[in-house]
Design goal:
single chain, membrane, cell membrane
């Protein structure tokens, strides 16, 4: 049976994952920067224009949620792409500096550190035998369960942080 050509065979294209590590990382990195804009706008409204704290509450809520989602995404993509621990930590730190996630994404792109698909099957790479890689492949083979688990964890962490109170209190 001849091999299908993904450029002309619609079933081959449909079989490709729609959300690559690159697309997921980039989407959440941009969302994190957008929520920085909302938070900063809310702060300007509150502290410069004396327009109340609704903007800070809404912007802070959205930014906090996306900030945590970005952290989870950076770790997941970093493990999948086999980034060094220091690079994963650097990705996490970019969320603390306003708008830094977008240039960091571009930096990763220029170095081909977002290349490749989700690693759902073992390869010849000797690192595939590690416990972390086996566990990662296991969860990546069930993307809906992974997404649900990450969503539950995100909501649980966010709810806990909300219960503890806003930063600076």
């Amino acid at each position: 049976m001849p091999e299908s050509d993904p450029t002309t065979d619609p079933t081959a294209v449909a079989a490709q994952p729609r959300l690559s590590p690159r697309r997921l990382y980039r989407t959440v990195a941009i969302a994190e920067a957008v929520t920085w804009t909302l938070l900063i706008t809310g702060m300007i409204l509150k502290y410069v224009l004396d327009a109340g704290d609704v903007g800070v509450r809404v912007g802070g809520f959205l930014h906090g949620f996306v900030f945590l989602a970005y952290g989870m995404t950076a770790v997941l993509v970093g493990l999948n792409q086999r980034w060094r621990v220091g690079l994963i930590a650097g990705a996490l730190l970019t969320a603390v500096v306003p708008y830094a996630t977008v240039p960091f994404d571009r930096w990763l792109e220029r170095r081909n550190l977002l290349e490749g698909a989700w690693r759902t099957a073992p390869s010849d790479d000797p690192r595939d035998g590690t416990a972390v890689d086996r566990m990662l492949r296991g969860v990546l083979r069930h993307p809906l369960l992974l997404a649900a688990g990450l969503a539950v964890a995100l909501v649980a962490i966010f709810a806990t942080l909300l219960a503890l109170g806003p930063p600076g209190r």
